Fold these 4 entries.
Entry 1:
Amino acid sequence: MCPKLAVINFSYYSTNTEWTYWLMTNEDIFQKLCDLIGPYNKKSLSLNKFTTFSGDLSMDSLTVMDLVADFEDEFDILIPINILPDLDTIQDVADAIEKIQNRE
């Protein structure tokens, strides 16, 4: 199955002063999320699309909010607070980030 397309990231190369961009797939977003979750993964669990924040990773609400702030900074987005209760798994977050960035 082809991965979903999401997010256009811009990168500035100072050596040739040209802007370049590339499309991130949903899988790319997922991998970046796993990298960001790593320092919060106190149980050293193997992360997959179905890993839950409160159940599997045993994160409390304060830790989740810190993590959400990291996601927002990394992807340069704002995650609406009203969708947070629906973001149970890492894949839920990847899908939400893809949707938010495709709207912008």
Entry 2:
Amino acid sequence: MDHQNIGLLIAELGFPIVMALAAFGALWWTQKFVMASLHRDIEEVKSELVSSQQAQYEIIVKLIDRVSGLSDGVLRTEIICRTAIGLEQEWNRIGMAKGGRKKD
């Protein structure tokens, strides 16, 4: 808009209404700018979280495998020690989950 159109608009609507419309336009533009920058920042954080979650998932899988391997090693060591000492094996306990149920 040029100066002549703004002058006509002020003459027809009044200065307070034109200034209110201008303030509304400025607030709308500011809000649009802030929302766009927030959306960009949120997308960046979201992509970082996805990559972090993937890394954590891989770590958890490796830890579960390590614990399973250690559990098998402890069981083998217990069986060897019981055999060497001459103690009776607890075959009903081997292969059981917590709570005394069979593992699948």
Entry 3:
Amino acid sequence: MQPSYLTAYSSAATSAWKVLDWHTVPFSVGVAITPVGGVTGWALDITMDDVTGVFPPPYGTPTVFGASQVNAGLAGSSTTFVGVISQPIAAVRLRLTGGGGSVTASILQAGIG
């Protein structure tokens, strides 16, 4: 699988969701975060729910969690980060939480070919 890229700009602080294949065994998603410009903070969001709306959760919109709940290093910062999410999740998105510029996440899921 080729890497996917999520970018959040100062004018639109949240990227689109990247749907992942939670059926892959073992589940493993590499994440590299690269802030550019005056970024003072970023955060990675995850969800266990279907963000496409095909199978919406019974409680309405998808529940969003901070990725730090599955990898403490993904708590967000103003610096670059490389890490792994090994707990199955349905989707991931990136947020710019402070400053200007942009922040990009490179997402690479193992086992997809």
Entry 4:
Amino acid sequence: MKKISLAVLASLLPIAAFAQTVGTTYVSSAESLVSQVLGWVIPILITLAVIFFFVELIKLLMAPPDERGKRKAGLLWSILAVFLMFSFLGIVHILQSFTGASGGGQIDASQVPTVNF
């Protein structure tokens, strides 16, 4: 069964390669959809990570002395999550400023490489 599915996928690969047309807005519409979704998802994830940090902090302060080690681990994981999120955003902004790229730009159809037959 796997050999048949691989053969079907391999036979459909040229169709996908020659499906490129000039002047369509599929690339720009997909890019705008991804940027809109990420524009909503990233702030929500950061908000959830900060809320998780404060919940873990309150749990640590309210925990009895014998459970504080477990609560400290949860607090460390929440700090790590917030740190990694902001670090990732910082690296993306540094790369954007270094390369001159900006988020949310449009792709011109004349910039897309084509194959003429």
